[in-house]
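Let us walk through a complete example step by step. Step one is to write down the protein sequence. Step two is to encode the small molecule, 2-acetamido-2-deoxy-beta-D-glucopyranose, as a SMILES string so that its atoms and bonds are unambiguous. Step three, shown after the inputs, is the structure prediction itself.
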Amino acid sequence: MLFNSFIFRFSSVMKLKLCLSFLMFFVIHDVQSAKSQWMALVPSTIPAVQGSCVVIPCTYNYPRPSSKKIINSWLGFWKKGNKVLATSIQKWKLPVEYKKRTQFLAKLRTRNCTMLLDSVRSTDVGPFYFRIEMPQYKSFSYTQNSVSIDVIRNPPPPTLSVEVNDQVYATCSVFHSCPSIPPQFSWSHTGVIKSQSKKVNAWNWQTVSTLTFPPLATDFNKPLNCTVRHRGGKEAQSSIILLI
Ligand SMILES: *[C@@H]1O[C@H](CO)[C@@H](O)[C@H](O)[C@H]1NC(C)=O
Ligand SMILES: *[C@@H]1O[C@H](CO)[C@@H](O)[C@H](O)[C@H]1NC(C)=O
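Step three: the predicted structure of the complex.
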């Protein structure tokens, strides 16, 4: 009631402003409470070619300790069930299954829990989840925010297109999950080859290879092939007929 009579004295413009600032307060309050919950931000499923690598992007949050506790130690674990795949603890003995295939990519103090899994096996489907241990505070397993890997046994053919002017300009591209060792391209025709990668979203990259060459009459009505070889050796090919 006190609040109502308070508002009553304002002009309608002021009322609106007050309402807006109250709305803002709730919006900001909501964002902040989301930031201070036991929550990890990860994609639920990531496609990855078998044999290749996959970067699992991850950030995590925890409620602020109520007292003025100083947290200066964070121990991170990536797990599947009770098995540890990767950890920030250097001396930890990982199961043979995961040894030398996983890497912690980021510092835990920045709430980044990104992990890399290499030589993806058909059995690496997950679900995988992150666990944080803060000896001065609490520990938590983010089992509600788990990641599954959609292991692709036969990678799809690359996207191939060609433009013919004075030069033949061909473009071949694929999406992948392994930015550290991007796919390699090979072409059935010689020419100037350039390759470039870009990030599409948090877990997906695109690598594009272009081939440029001056065509001879004998090049026409013949297939031009682009072969992509993913990290780990899986290959896929696309073919296009060069038309005048
Ligand atoms: C987390 O760390 C990885 C690896 O260093 C980095 O690529 C990524 O951008 C970081 N994510 C955020 C949200 O800072
Ligand atoms: C290009 O691909 C076509 C169709 O798949 C195939 O018949 C041909 O042998 C390939 N050529 C080369 C040079 O790889």
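Step four is interpretation. The first helix runs from residue 2 to 8.
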